[in-house]
Amino acid sequence: MDYSLSLRLVAPEVLLSVGGLILLLAAAWMGDKASKAISIASVAVLVAAAALTAPVLCGGNAGAGTEAFFGQMRADAFAAFAKMLIYAAGAASLMIAPRFFDRWNAMRAEYPVLIVFAVLGMSIMVSAGDLMTLYIGLEMNSLAAYVLAAFLRVDSRSEEAGLKYFVLGALASGILLYGMSLTYGFTGTTSFAGIRAVLESGMSTGALFGVIFVLAGLAFKIAAVPFHMWTPDVYEGAPTPVTTFFATAPKVAAVALLMRVSLDAFGAQSDAWRQVVTFAALASIVVGALGAIGQDNIKRLLAYSSINNVGFILVGLAAATPEGASAMLVYLAIYVAMSVGSFVAVLMLRDADGNQVESITDMAGLSRTSPAIAWCLLLLMLSLAGIPPLFGFWGKLVVFQAAVDAGMIAIATIAIAASVIGAFYYLKVGKVMFFDEPADKVKGPNDWAHWALLVVSTVFISPLGYLLTGWLGGLADKASAALFLAA
């Protein structure tokens, strides 16, 4: 094996590893007073990693030439698409953190370092070509995420969120490991290519149980029903910049990993797992929509919204076609922009003392006290609901089109009908902001980083976003083709 070629293929991961270690030493030597400088350096590391990844995506790299370390990792266009979204979400989470933590005097130098190492784990996840690599990346991400959830030590909700996330994450890891063990036991290999080759000749009962347990473990990571129970509590309790990170980057990584495992390793037996994915998709759409209706905390509402949106994404996976995979990637890109914009808007809701305003009731009359934030948040809510002509409608449209083309008309119909339920709670937020008497709670000023991210996200999901459909769809098609070529 040519180790120099393998190292070139995993250059973004090498950069993140070296950069993270250097920043860790800087945090230890310079202390918390250098936290903002380390945050800036961390953003620079992520931008550099994205610069190394972009040519792979634009070139549509695929096939044997993208395999590193005996197929343990795959630096193909599919992985590159997911990495670009992960790096963007990680950078956004770093940009919005200092202002939030300064209010509590809790900004620590280790925060950006944890983000970098979590991103490194996710980068390994989406490039995994073997069950062992998959687990290493997953645990590297998870270990950093547990600490991030409990990062705000002066807030008991953050400590509770960290503990819940750790306990349930450990349970999910155990389920995943058991599934991997069964898969290895009944196929004799941990390589995705090897597993696929064995399953092409048929699937034993033991291997079927292995597939189900692996999918169950990954379902926890994407917060799909029935493994969604941790999401509202963790989203509410974790610091809002961390919640922004959880709602975007790990979601992209887990969905991309689920796609690679399902369509590559288990792709030869898609009928064996399609029913499981279909149930998770429809259940997530319905439970996410119904669960959000009674919420008064905006972060809990967005948590159920993320469950709902995962359901729509899984409809594309149930199609098990290149068109379905491409539609999922388009949806993910739009979802990241909508989630970043929504949580940044929530971060900008502060009272006169700088405290976070999270109650939807306290947002009453926001259109008259902070009209710019109110209009941006309204557009983001309507886009999450999939209401045309906003760009969120396009994400749902391409997923439903892929399902219809795959002959899954009944599933697409049910998903479309259930999406109407979700529109209620998004419209409820708009009604409170624009038609209720002003609560006059939101008064705090905001910095340029928040405004920049909010404006960019809002413009992206506006009708102007449709100008990017050809470009975004082309990149998604290249990534999807690379995934199916690997399979």
UniProtKB/TrEMBL annotation:
UniProt keyword annotation of Ribosomal protein present: no
Catalytic activity: a quinone + NADH + 5 H(+)(in) = a quinol + NAD(+) + 4 H(+)(out)
Function as written in the Swiss-Prot or TrEMBL entry: NDH-1 shuttles electrons from NADH, via FMN and iron-sulfur (Fe-S) centers, to quinones in the respiratory chain. The immediate electron acceptor for the enzyme in this species is believed to be ubiquinone. Couples the redox reaction to proton translocation (for every two electrons transferred, four hydrogen ions are translocated across the cytoplasmic membrane), and thus conserves the redox energy in a proton gradient.
InterPro entries tied to this protein: NADH-Q_OxRdtase_suN/2, ND/Mrp_TM
Record's bilayer topology term: Multi-pass membrane protein
Family as reported in the entry's similarity comment: Belongs to the complex I subunit 2 family.
Identification of the protein by name: NADH-quinone oxidoreductase subunit N
Annotated ranges, domain NADH:quinone oxidoreductase/Mrp antiporter transmembrane: 128-421
One BP term from GO: ATP synthesis coupled electron transport
One GO molecular-function entry: NADH dehydrogenase (ubiquinone) activity
SUBUNIT field: NDH-1 is composed of 14 different subunits. Subunits NuoA, H, J, K, L, M, N constitute the membrane sector of the complex.
Domain of life: Bacteria
Species of origin: Tsuneonella dongtanensis
Localization terms from the record: Cell membrane; Endomembrane system; Membrane
Pfam families the record matches: Proton_antipo_M
GO CC annotation: endomembrane system; plasma membrane
Alphabetical keyword list: Cell membrane, Membrane, NAD, Oxidoreductase, Quinone, Translocase, Transmembrane, Transmembrane helix, Transport, Ubiquinone
Top-level enzyme category: translocase
Residue stretches spanning the membrane: 6-30, 37-57, 77-97, 109-128, 166-187, 207-230, 275-294, 301-322, 328-349, 370-394, 406-427, 448-468
Acyltransferase in keyword set: no
